Amino acid sequence: MAEDTSGISADRLNSIIKRIEKLEEDKAGISDDIKEVYSEAKGTGFDTAIIRKIVRLRKVELEKRREESELLDLYMAAIGMEA
Question: Are residues 40 and 7 in the same domain?
Answer without folding.
Answer: yes
